[in-house]
Amino acid sequence: MYKIGIPRGMLFYDYYPLWAEFFKELGAEVIVSPKTNKDILNSGVLNCVDESCLPVKVFHGHADYLKDKVDYIFIPKMISIRKLEYCCPKILGLPDMVRFSIADLPPIIDTTINLRKINYTSSKYKKAVYEAGKYITQNKSKIRNAYKKAWESYERYLYLLSKGVIPIEAVKMYNKTFVDLNYNSKNHDMSIMVVGHPYNIYDEYLNMNLISKLINNRIKVMTPEMVSKDEIIYYSNQLPKRMFWTYGRRIVGSAFSLIEKDEVEGIIYLSSFGCGIDSILIDLIERKAKSKGVPFTLLTLDEQTGEAGIDTRIEAFIDMMKWRNKDDCDISTFR
C-alpha cells in the first residue's frame, strides 16, 4: 500500500477532504503532518528562502516532516481554480520551491490544476485527475469512481462550512453521518469576522488559537468560507476593476457582504508579514468598514510574533467594542 503525505499547510483547509478521500478510495494510506508546532516552524524557516512569507515557510516544515514517512508527497500546482482568475504566485510555485529547498524528498505528486480557461467538467481537468491517480493505479475507471466519491465528501464539507462550522472542526466531521451544526451558533454577545487567507485563519499555532479565544469570549466567529460564492462574486464586483486573484476576490467579497448586510459587529484581519496581496486587500476592507462604522483591526503574523502581544490586541479590541456598544455607540469607531 502506497503512503501519500499531505502537508497540513497552505490550501489544506480548502481541499483536504477532497484530496484525502480521493487517495483513500484508490487504496492508498493518507498521512497528514501534525498541526503546526515550534519544531515544524523552525524546520520550515531553515529549509526555505528568507524572502518567502510565513505560511510558505511553515509549509516547508510540514513537507520536511513527511519526507521520511511516505512514498509520495502531494503538492498540486494550483495555477487557477476559477475562470479568468489566478492563485497567488507562492501557491503556483509551491511544489518547485519545496523540491529544490528540501533534500532527500520522495517523489512529489505535483499535478497541475489550471481552470483559467476551462471548468471542472472539461476533459483537461479530468486529465489532471487521472494524472494524480496514476501514481496509485493505472485503472482509469477506478480513478474516475474514486474522484466521484471524493467530490461527494467535499460537498459535505462545503455544506458544513455553509452552516457556520469552522473548517478546523469541519475537517473532523465531514465524513460522519451525524454532526452538530450548532457548533458556532451557541449564545454569544457579538459577532466578529476573522478575515484573511485560510492558512492564516486556521493554523492555530500561527495565530495563537485566535478563533478559540474569540469563541471562549462568547463571540460568534464568521470567516470567508461561510459566505456563499454568489454573494462573494456580487459584492466583489463592486470594485471598479476586476479582482483577478481568487483568494483576493473571496476575502474582499465576503467582507463586503457581511459589512453591507450588517451581519458582523467587528472585523479582525489576519495577515502574514510581507504579503503583497494583503497590502491591497487590507486597505480595501478597512475603507469599507470605516464607511459603515464597523470596528476594524489588523493582526500581522511572522515567526517572531509573541502570544502576549496578540492576546493584548484581541482583549483590547473586544473590550472597546463592548464599551462602545454599551455606553458610547454614538462615538466614531475610527477616532
Automatic annotation (TrEMBL):
Single GO MF annotation: kinase activity
Stored InterPro entries: CoA_activase_DUF2229, Dehydratase_Activator_Redct, FldB/FldC_alpha/beta
Chain ranges of the DUF2229 domain: 3-227
Cited Pfam families: DUF2229 (PF09989), HGD-D (PF06050)
Alphabetical UniProt keywords: Kinase, Transferase
Entries under PANTHER family matching the protein: BIFUNCTIONAL PROTEIN [INCLUDES 2-HYDROXYACYL-COA DEHYDRATASE (N-TER) AND ITS ACTIVATOR DOMAIN (C_TERM), BIFUNCTIONAL PROTEIN [INCLUDES 2-HYDROXYACYL-COA DEHYDRATASE (N-TER) AND ITS ACTIVATOR DOMAIN (C_TERM)-RELATED
Protein name: Predicted nucleotide-binding protein, sugar kinase/HSP70/actin superfamily
